[in-house]
Structures are given as C-alpha cells and as structure tokens.
Write a structure and sequence with these properties.
about 475 residues, Nucleotidyltransferase, domain 5, 2 domains, 24 strands, Xylulose kinase, EC 2.7.1.17, xylose metabolism, ATP-binding
C-alpha cells in the first residue's frame, strides 16, 4: 500500500492506494489561514502536522489492515511557503504562504539583479520564497539571524515524518534559489539574497527516495516498516503526475482556488520575460511550464460572499450552454496577478455594468474574466513555443458546464473532462511513492479515463476573441489609474 499526502492551502488530503494504483481510501483535515495585515497570508506549521495525524487516524479507522501494509509515502505541497527553523529545529515564525504579497519590493530588487532570471529560469515573483527571506531580513532581523533551515510546507511535514531535511527539485524551483536547468541549488542565487547552502535542505528527485518514516510513527500508525518517503513535489507538478501529464505536448488547465495552465516539457527552455513559470518536474530529466492566475474559483467565492448567494446557486442560475460573451468585462485581479503581468498592486474591476444587470450577468462576467486570464496564460505559453492541441480540465470550477464551455471557446481548445474519481495531487503523491519503491513512472503515471470532451463553440469564437480584446485593453487603463 502507498500513502499520498497533499499539504494544501486550506487543508491536507491523505490518499491510500494499492500497488495497482487503485484508490482504497481518502481522508481530509482542514486548517485556517491568517491575514494579519493587508497582503499578508500566513499559516501555523503545526497545523499541517495535526491535520496529517487526523487524516491518517481516519484512514486507520476505516482501513486498518491496508494502513498497516504501507510501504511508501509521497508528498505534495503548496509551493513557495517560507517555513523558518532555528538550530534546534523549532519554528521561528508562522509560515509565509504562496499568496502573500508583502515582499513585492524585495522581489523587484532581486529580479533586477544580474543573472537571477537566467539562473532560476523565472521572474522573481513576490510569492516566491527568496524575497520572503529578504523581507524577514529587513523587517524581522532577530528572526533572520536565527534561521538555520528554510523548508517548504511539505518538507516541514517530511521533517516531522522522518527527522530529515530533504526537498525535491520541482518544489525548490519555486524558491528563486534553484538553478532549474542544473536541478541544484545555486550558490550565486543564494548569495544575492543573503542565504547559504547549509540553510537549504538536501535535494532529491521527486520520484526518488527522500527519507524514511520514523520508527515512533511506524509504531503509532501500526506499520511494521520500513516505509520509504518519496521526494515528492510542488502541488502542480504532483497533480501532473496524478493526471499522467509528463510528456511533451501534454497539459492541463485547472479551475481551482487559483488558476493554472500547465504544459509538460522534455527539455529546459525558460522564457522569464513572459511571466511563464519554468520549473523542474517531479519526474527526472523533465520540466514543465505554466501560467498562473491568483484567483479562479476564488473570484466566484468572492462574488458569492458579496451577493449573499452560494457559488452553486450563482452557477446554477446560468444555462448549461453559452450563447455569446457578456457586455460586462471583469478583471479577476482580486489579489494582483502573476501571468502575464507580474503585478501585485493591480486589483479587480467590473466594467460596463448596466442598471438592468443582476447576479446572473455578474456571474457570467466573472467566469469569462477568469477564462480570459487563462487565455493570457495560453498566449504566454505559445510565446515560448509551446503548442497544446487539447487539455485535461480539472478543479472545482469544472462542475459548471457553462464555465467549461466558456473556457473551451475562449482558449479555442477541446477540454477533456475526466471521470469522477481521484486524479489530483494526492494520487500523484501516492504514485511518486510507488516510483520511489521501484515502480516504473511511465507505467504508474497514466492519464485518468475521460468522461466527455467539451469542444469550442466555433461559431462563437470570433465574438469571444473580440471580448478578449476588450478585456486585454482594460488592464493598462486600470494600471494607469492605480499608479
């Protein structure tokens, strides 16, 4: 048996799979996010441990024999989080999360430093780890002086599971300290942000062994052991493993809390100026590129809170099929934006609201705005030479037929909807556990069965292209107003 652990932003998912990859059981445990100041987003690392204990306990209760037979554990985690430990391994402050924008000034300074983009393969975004440490150095010098190790969220959980300081290349590529082409820490990148190699964890490939479960936990969980812990990876890379996406030309689009358009790459070809992320994959000698928008279903959640109606009610008031774009234009920049703007200051906008418009029209415009933002990501990927003829569509937003058909038409790409079941980061983590125990990645990491395909509405593509042009023209106008 194999256990996949996914450390998300709002909770941890534990998935138990057998040696054939079939899902035996799933358990979830939630935790909160703190926002102590505007643009801040923090989490208590101990909450990840408590959630893991809770989820594993639930699996033990439901599947005691299967849990006892666990041979490998895989890890997936929200990327970029700065978990700071002192020499005793104690947490120095709450973890600064991926969607925290307080370090925008530090990020811009690092990004302008010679060779940083070239070595890391990416723009230095405020959400990345390196500028967070630069912020801590400037604003919390006592904390910075006591930093002995910097761990990403899933690797802090690994530290509790194994007692070892280990990370993988895919997660570490989002720190701005990794040479993504060489798949190793860069002493130059560390030095320009005031860090040292000894403050970093050791590196392994995501599909390779990366520690063993502590004997105390083996006894507590009723496992004879030994249990191998895989290197694992950042959530999007591991989700790609769950979706069987690691060959050139394969990709997926995710309508989750944030939005992602990801393409697997068999070679390293970064283009930082495009604001496309180029990261190591969790599979050796493989990379991936992705465009990221900071709010996808979060936009619908915000509208839900604002209008006092549930997201399901808002989505349910729209038809199953589209008939053309809205006259309202929505910029979905509730927390700023990554691809293609790298703009932490821009904010969301509705333009063109009529006195007769109501919740349904605002919901349609919100869904279209998210789709247009993902079109920005697709255009940026095309600029790097990436061509995607079809995409797997995943995430909670795909429950809305209207939203999926809107997205397919805006992207002008067929979207495959997988059958119901597990195919995300928790399954990908379990698959990495299998490979760390000797399984062949190509055999294990298969694509999920497709339920149906949503094709673009070809007769409406020109109208949505015009609406996308209006959307694209609105950003520079709003940026000028906010400057």
């Amino acid at each position: 048996m194999y256990l996949g652990l996914d450390v998300g932003t709002s909770g941890l998912r534990a998935l138990l799979a057998d040696e054939a990859g079939a899902v035996v059981g799933v358990a979830d445990a939630g935790y909160g996010v703190s926002h102590p100041a505007t643009g801040w987003s923090e989490q208590t690392p101990g909450d990840w441990i408590a959630a893991c204990s809770e989820a594993v306990a639930a699996l033990r209760e439901a599947h005691p024999t299967e849990v006892a037979a666990i041979k490998g554990i895989g890890l997936s985690g929200q990327m970029h989080g700065a978990t700071l430990l002192d020499k005793a391994g104690e947490v120095l402050r709450p973890c600064i999360l991926w969607n925290d924008t307080r370090s925008a000034v530090e990020a811009a300074k690092l990004d302008q430093t010679p060779d940083v983009r070239e070595l890391s393969g990416n723009i230095v975004f405020p959400g990345f780890t390196a500028p967070k440490l630069a912020w801590v150095k400037a604003n919390e010098p006592d904390v910075f002086d006591n930093v002995a190790k910097v761990l990403l969220p899933k690797d802090y959980l690994r530290y509790w599971l194994s007692g070892e300081f280990i990370s993988d290349m895919s997660d570490s590529a989002g720190t701005s300290w990794l040479d993504a082409g060489a798949r190793d820490w860069s002493d130059q990148l560390l030095d320009v942000s005031g860090m040292r190699r000894d403050q970093m964890p050791d590196l392994v490939e995501g599909a390779a062994p990366g520690g063993e479960l502590r004997r105390e936990l083996c006894r507590e969980w009723g496992i004879e052991g030994p249990v191998v812990i895989a290197g694992g990876g950042g959530d999007n890379a591991v989700a790609a493993c769950g979706a069987g996406c690691f060959r050139e030309g394969e990709g997926f689009v995710s309508l989750g809390t944030s939005g992602v358009l990801l393409a697997a790459k068999e070679s390293y070809a970064p283009d930082p100026a495009s604001a496309v992320h180029t990261f190591c994959h969790a599979v050796p000698e493989t990379w991936y590129q992705m465009g990221v928008i900071l709010a996808a279903t979060d936009c619908l959640n915000w509208l839900s809170r604002t209008l006092g109606q549930t997201p399901a009610t808002l989505a349910g008031d729209l038809p199953d099929s589209i008939s053309g774009p809205s006259s309202i234009t929505f910029l979905p920049y509730l927390s700023g934006e990554r691809t293609p703007h790298n703009d932490s200051r821009i904010r969301a906008t509705f333009s063109g609201i009529d006195i007769g418009d109501g919740p349904a029209q605002m919901t349609q415009a919100t869904m279209e705005g998210v789709a247009f933002a993902l079109r920005d990501c697709l255009e940026a990927l095309k600029g790097t030479g990436t061509n995607l003829n079809r995409l797997l569509a995943v995430g909670g937003g795909t429950q809305s037929p209207f939203w999926v058909e809107t997205l397919a038409t805006v992207l002008n790409v067929p979207l495959d909807i997988p059958d119901k079941g597990e195919f995300g980061a928790a399954l990908g983590a379990a698959r990495l556990a299998m490979t760390a125990c000797g399984a062949d990645a190509a055999t294990v990491m298969t694509a999920p069965p497709v339920s149906h395909t949503i094709d673009p509405r070809s007769e409406l593509v020109p109208a949505y292209n015009e609406a996308y042009a209006r959307y694209s023209a609105l950003y520079p106008s709003m940026k000028a107003l906010m400057t």
